[in-house]
Design brief:
30% helix; 9 strands; alpha+beta; 8-stranded antiparallel barrel
Length: 240
Amino acid sequence: MSATPTDVKFDALPDLRRPGVGVVKSSVWRMGTPERQRAAVEAIAEAWGSRDWPDVGLLSYSVYTGTDGDALLHYSQWESEAAYQDFFRRFRDGRNAEIDAAVPGIERVGLHSYELYRSGGPRPGDPRTPGCIVIVDVEFEGPDPERQRAWVDAVFEALDTDPDLPPGGISAHFHASLDGTRVLNYAEWESERAHIDALAAGSDGVGSKTPQWARVHDHPGVTGGGVTRYLPALTVTPAS
């Protein structure tokens, strides 16, 4: 059986609605400076592009540079948890060793496993291309899958009833962690400036001052979270 080459596309985004995704892995690398961010992206492209695709149930792997000049977000789609574990055993160390040799001192934090729960947008025929990815992390006090989904459903109710949503948002994809303790919203925006302007115009976040948004902000069991803006760096997939 012939090996499959790896296709590296810079500034590309994954298909969030790709069929066959059983689990999503997300993590962050702390790089310290924009120069180290760029060097790490180049090292990742080389480490993956110089090797054949690991045929273990990995569907796509994407990297994003934080606009804070520090973070690198990693977002990968897998057929199953078993597929990820197979990759971890057989392929991960060689790639990471090459990247670490090129950019020493990477701090790897917060690997979490998710499933995509609900998506909203883009509207049919929307021609806009996302220029910024906004990651909203929400943490809950202890595992409770029903509470995770109730919070996401409350967000959709608030979005659907908001009289004045900001114009720069394109789509939102809500992921529930498999351990029941957190939600990740992968939101596509026209640009970093569009999201900054939306925050400045909103009452608490990007929403209007409505009872529905108040229920989101005061939802029982939410203990923390954060918002980080990212720019697309690269996506790798098996070459077609």
